[in-house]
Design a protein that fits this description.
Number of helices: 5
Protein name: Alpha/beta hydrolase family protein
Number of domains: 1
CATH class: Alpha Beta
Distance between the termini: 17 Å
Number of strands: 3
Strand order of the largest sheet: 1-2-3
Length: 115
């Protein structure tokens, strides 16, 4: 998201089952690496508005990152589009041949065509 907001060369972003609000998904390991304040500042949610299209593709069966991360981000980012893939888990976004993978590919293709 940082590159989408700050680089003229980036036309948009596809968030694949992404942690979009770091403050709601802090792990003990993450807190070993930085403070809660640093974590919040680095969060994609802190970058809103991004100023470019963002497609959030998320499975409704994701047990690693709740789909609410994408739902809440899309509610506050004016250029965000939410794509919820029924029956998809976290790793389906990066598993070739799954519906989630195809939805991500389609989103990238759409962003590329629109630039």
């Amino acid at each position: 998201m940082w590159a989408a907001k700050h680089s003229a060369r980036v036309v948009g972003a596809v968030a694949q089952a992404a942690v979009l609000d770091f403050t709601k998904h802090i792990t003990p390991r993450a807190l070993e690496l930085c403070t809660e304040e640093q974590f919040a500042e680095a969060s994609p949610a802190a970058l809103v508005p991004i100023g470019k299209p963002v497609v959030c593709v998320h499975g409704d069966r994701d047990e690693d990152v709740p789909v609410e991360q994408s739902v809440e981000f899309c509610a506050v980012e004016p250029q965000a589009e939410l794509v919820v893939v029924e029956g998809a888990g976290h790793m389906d976004m990066i598993t070739p041949g799954t519906e989630a993978w195809e939805r991500c590919r389609a989103a990238v293709g759409r962003l590329a065509r629109d630039c």
